[in-house]
Amino acid sequence: MRLLDPVLRVVPFSGRDAELAELTNWAGGSETVRVRLLTGLGGSGKSRIAVELSARLSRRRWRSVWLDPADEPQDVAGACRGPRVLVVVDDAASFPRLADQLGALVDAEAGRVRVLLLARTGREWWTRLRWASALWADPACVPTSMAHVGAPAQTPDRMVRTAASAFAPRLGTQTPDLVVGDLPADADPPRFGDVHAAVLAVLAERRAGGEETVVDVGRGLAALLDQERDRWVDTDAVVARALLCGDRRDLPDRLAELHVARTLTAAPGMTEVCTARITPDEAFEVAMFAFRLDVDTPAVTGAGRLTAALLERVAAELPDDREYLERILRLFPVRPVPAAQAADLASRLVTVITDAGDQDTTGEAEALGVRARALEEAGRTDEALAPAERATAMWRRIAHVDPLRYRVALWRAMRDLAVVSFGAGREKEHASLVEEGVAAWSSASEADSVWTEPELAWGMHALELTTAPGSVDAARWYHERAVAILRGLVARDPVAYEETLARVQGNLLLLVNRGRPAEALEGLRESVAIRRRLARDRPDAFERYLAYSLSNLSHALAGIGDAAEALAAGQEALALRRRVVRKAASAGRSGVPRLRFELAWSLSGVGVLLSEQGRPHEALSLEEEALAIRRDLARETPDRYREELATSCSNLGVTYSRLGRFGDALRLEQEAVEIRRELVRGSSSSRYRQHLARSLSNLGVRYSDMGRTEDAVEPTREAVALLRQVARDDRWQHLPDLATALANLGATFTDLSRAQDAIGPLHEAVGALRDLSREHPEKHLPGLASALTALAVAFGEQRRYVSAAASAREAVRIRDQLAATDQRRFGDDLARSVRVLADMESVLPTDGARRSHVITARSERA
Predict the structure, then answer these.
(1) Residue 479 CB-density burial (10 A; 0-12 exposed, 13-18 middle, 19+ buried)
(2) DSSP codes, 622-691
(3) Best CA proximity match to 570, nearest among 542, 535, 608, 536
(4) CA distances from 109 to 63, 136, 327, 685, 776 (A)
(5) Does 360 have pLDDT greater than 90?
(6) To 10 degrees, what angle do helices 362-377 and 381-401 make?
(7) pTM of the entire structure?
(8) What does the alpha-carbon distance between residue 47 and residue 44 come to, in Å, rounded to a whole number?
(9) Which residue from 154, 116, 114 is spatially nearest to 30, judged by alpha carbons?
(10) Where is the signal peptide (predicted)?
(11) Within 13 Å of residue 755, how many CA atoms lie on the same side as its CB?
(12) How high is the mean pLDDT of the chain?
């Protein structure tokens, strides 16, 4: 086991020449202090790179200092005196006093200091260093950078051969001829640590007489751990508790994590046994262990759930001690701490600080910010507003005294308040905070880019979501800018920023709603792929977000007419959301509004897809369940959920109509119109007017279904007028709804034998649907065929049989193609168009004379 220690340098260094060369260049330069964060998953070779850098720089008369978590700041300052000093902090996230230790370097009396921080991810502790440590307080800002250690630049075969040649002499055996076992097609590239452990396990077996020559790099750690366990005196549970609480037993972190994960998931209650009566110091070690598990889950079924379980135990055992509360919360402000526990710990910390009379400090401001983020994450947005506002106000006062040091903290607090304000429906406050933040981040110096880029990416995304309805290109520009920044951040710290990239790409529903669904597909598919991979290891943490991306992908696919894939994505999202709600119910959180809202969203989306595909019986129960949930939500918080309630009323009304329940359908659509009129009166948003127009157009159809055709005219006319207004700002977003309303108006006039009034709206609807069908034929060809058939009927009633026959022929041609792909869905429509065409052709001129004819085809309704 000791042979894996990177300090011993047993295996020759190779495959990381580019990274080492870059770090060597970084160590140069004239600045007094430079800091670099080097990220990489466990076993990727971070520590070995630092060891090699130390050796290379020592030949240039640099001195290396490796910090320990227990080092006092004054001792750090004393150890770092000299002309050239490299300071290495391995597993930097586990250093509870890192800010003070780095701050001591200001007084180190060194010529040049280079600080290399090694960690699996930066996440929150890294951002906090900017204001927590005095190292960055000097106006001559410390140049700070990040880099990531990715997959090795070597094949697994070469890594195995190199390791075998190095380990065999140390073990007193001949170098064997080893081959790499097959890897799963979707497996990540093996890391140096995993390969070395696998080789060492095979060589140890051969010393005992084994003849195995295949190296299973996927199971190398497990095999080596099993061999190690054979020599243990203590039980697995005793060792697991010791490892959890800080006693490493000379096991590398990766082996320790694997053993704890296997032990704690093997039996119910083992987590409680191994964390009973832990001390505050041990609680921090347990939390740190959970942090590593969250970043780099071992290949153990169920290990992903350990993070939350361990941190719930930490929260239960932690006393009301300010130092320890701050330690835990600085490490886990929101994820992966269960939001309820994080909010409770933050509340306790605020109380401790207030009771001590130590108010308006960075500690109180941080605690308030953590509480706000945790409450917002838990879906308790209204409760999050007050602490978010207090935190921002406090950071404004603190940053006013020392803006250079604390502005990053202020920016973060402003972002948190903006998120909470948006969730609470306070759009003006949200917009103001975003504009202020983007202006500040954009004007910051290049030296601060490490700290400003994450905030700027979020700001660009926020601007994307709040652009005016007609500014699709502006929204697209903001989106692309945010994605470009995030790709750079992912390249430097994927653990911290990959989920953020997935979130930004998953919000492309804006393009879908603005009539450009095809442009959203690539980003949405990337979001699904990222979140699917994350959910595979951490279902409890990421399944909910995977459902979000799948739901939006379903909507985009429906927008281009890909009904089958849209339904598959929507049904997967629905299944995930049902599972999330079941888990929440088992934990006593089934009433969380956000989870119910998301479930209703999926129920409604899948119901609409089924109904549109001619399966209203299957859609019925889903849409009724969605309506029931939204009624409850609107009763609890009407201002926030009435819009969704109106949507469910309208959707279910359409399905009732398809099932012949015309009276029920009419009552629901009338309710939707009433709600949406109130929303329009209270807001100038074009979105509300568009939705009101949809309901008015549907209301006209519902009246016609009931035989009240005269009553259908006025709401349908109002729908057309509203849609003409909003279409002036964004034609392509509103053109589908306008075309539908025009077709419905024309059909209504036809039913009233007012063919002259019908032809204009129907002709305009056909023109619009032709344009839309060129872009997305699968989505809009059915509507075009319907409008053409209605237009043929209207022409026929005016005895314009040539024009009628031409429209009917085109409708038949389109519906023939559609029925060839889905006879069940489009067969009846095709038969209707054929009957209309037959009627028209039967009265075309014969022998130079017209024959009178009664048009028997019923008018076509959109």
Answers:
(1) buried
(2) HHHHHHHHHHHHHHH-HHHHHHHHHHHHHHHHHHHHHTT-HHHHHHHHHHHHHHHHHHHHH---HHHHHH
(3) 608
(4) 14, 16, 29, 61, 68
(5) no
(6) 150
(7) 0.87
(8) 9
(9) 114
(10) none
(11) 14
(12) 89
* End-to-end Cα distance, the chain: 73
In single-letter form, the type of residue at position 386 comes to: A
The b-or-e profile of 7-21 (16+ CB within 10 A means b, else e) is: eeebbebebbeebbe
Report residue 854 as tokens: 């009664």
Token match 């649907």: residue?
A: 769
With the C-alpha atoms ordered 220, 224, 227, 229, is the resulting torsion angle positive or negative? Answer: negative
What is the layout of strands, in order, in the sheet containing 144-148?
63-66, 82-89, 110-119, 33-39, 144-148
Task: Determine the Cα–Cα distance for residues 60 and 48; give it in Å rounded to an integer.
Answer: 19
Name, in order, each residue with C-beta under 8 angstroms of 758's C-beta and a sequence gap of 6 or more: 745, 746, 747, 748, 749, 750, 790, 794
% pLDDT > 90, the chain: 57
The strand pairing partners of 740, in sequence order, are none
pLDDT of 81-91, one tens digit each? 889 999 999 99
pLDDT at 861: 43
Distance between CA 801 and CA 782 in Å, rounded?
23
Structure tokens at 470: 């007609």
Position 591 confidence tier, pLDDT thresholds 50, 70, 90: low
Quote the CA–CA distance of 338 and 540 in Å, as a whole number.
Answer: 10
What distance in Å separates the CA atoms of residue 719 and residue 696, rounded to the nearest whole number? Answer: 5
CA angle in degrees (0–180, nearest 5) for 738-744-746: 100
Residues 544/598, Cβ–Cβ less than 8 Å? yes
- Cis amide linkage into residue 336, ω under 30° from 0: yes
SS3 of residue 320 by DSSP: coil
Neighbours of 729 (CB within 10 A): 13
Beta bridge partners of 86: 64, 114
Using N-to-C axis directions, what is the helix angle for 306-317 and 253-266, rounded to 10°?
90
**Neighbour tally for 72: CB within 10 Å:** 12
pLDDT of 859 higher than 70: no
Asked if the 17-148 domain carries CATH number 3.40.50.800, the reply is no
Looking at residues 710-720, what average pLDDT do you find?
95
Structural domain spans, the chain: 17-148, 156-229, 758-862
CA 352 to each of CA 211, 323, 651: distance values in angstroms, whole numbers, following the listed order? 62, 10, 51
CA-closest candidate to residue 691, choices 719, 665, 666: 719
Q: What pLDDT is recorded for position 782?
A: 92
Q: Could you tell me if 178 and 43 are in contact, meaning their C-beta atoms sit under 8 angstroms apart?
A: no
